[in-house]
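Ligand: acetyl coenzyme *A. Inputs:
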Amino acid sequence: MTKAAITGIHGYVPDYVLTNAELEQMVDTNDEWITSRTGIKERHILKGEGMGSSHMGAKAVAGLLEKTGTAPADIDLLICATTTPDYVFPCTANLICDMVGIRNVGSFDIQAACSGFIYALTIGTQFIETGKYRKVIVVGADKMSAITDYTDRTTCVLFGDGAGAVLLEPNTEGLGVIDSIIHSDGVGQNHLIQKAGGSRYPPTHETIDKRWHYVYQDGPSVFKFAVKNMADVSAEIMARNNLTGADIAWLVPHQANKRIIDATANRMGIESDRVMMNIHKYGNTTAATIPLCLHDYEAQLKKGDNLVLAAFGGGFTWGAVYVKWAY
Ligand code: ACO
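Predicted complex:
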């Protein structure tokens, strides 16, 4: 059966670096608290008026096209996972296509908070496996700084901006996406939410005064769900593919909190030297964390390596993808 192989990866983060030291000047926090509770040291922030997630997504896609020697005209479909679209509409995928010269193909956004890339990769895979398309780009792009309240110490230390993109192509050697699992449970809706700006609470002076356009997170509640469900779904995908920890070359976890990552790796029986980690540099970039990990570790990946990608996010949403690396 034809598999959807990742045949290229590229990532982009903006230049500006927001350090823990700078955050200490903005809110009542300190480097020791942030590092010990989350593992984050710094994050990149997109500055400049009129710059949205599409700017970073387009940088990632342009780099991907160049690296893989792919012409924009050869792309059949582009899917963008984002929780911080440039606009309510048109979607960010449409904008990215326009910026990089991809024309007249389908493009759409997926919103599954921090699990967005897992969802988008799962969807993109179907178009390759069915034979409908031969070149699909999956992007994760988020400008979390646009919805982060820099007076709220419980959330502003967590998030950063960035984007990553992969190219999916057919593979008949058994390499590529082997299996994927996606889950959601609306029980989490009030624990992690941007309350206003959608159709339930459109923007008003009142919603702005109440700071409802920013991320609200009940950290400890989300933490409990995240630890359990990211580990459970990783164990689930291993069990149904008869994998043990020893079979897995790399765990590629969503980068929300180092403690959640460590718990997941522990449950899977994977040592820390086989866990991709860049949270210290970028913080939580939502849909971009997993492709940014793949980008940073690309040189260490070998053809045939077994990778488990896993994420948990708002909704709640969570999921895992089992990939055999193709190059
Ligand atoms: N600096 C210093 N102190 C702080 C800070 C800060 N930045 N933030 C909170 N505190 C204080 C709190 O006020 C609290 O003080 P108190 O005990 O006097 O009340 C104390 O530190 C402990 O706060 P907790 O919230 O209990 O800290 P916790 O250990 O739970 O860590 C964190 C918070 C890092 C947010 C953690 O709960 C977490 O990682 N949660 C899950 C995040 C996640 O996975 N999200 C899903 C993906 S994101 C998405 O989908 C968009």
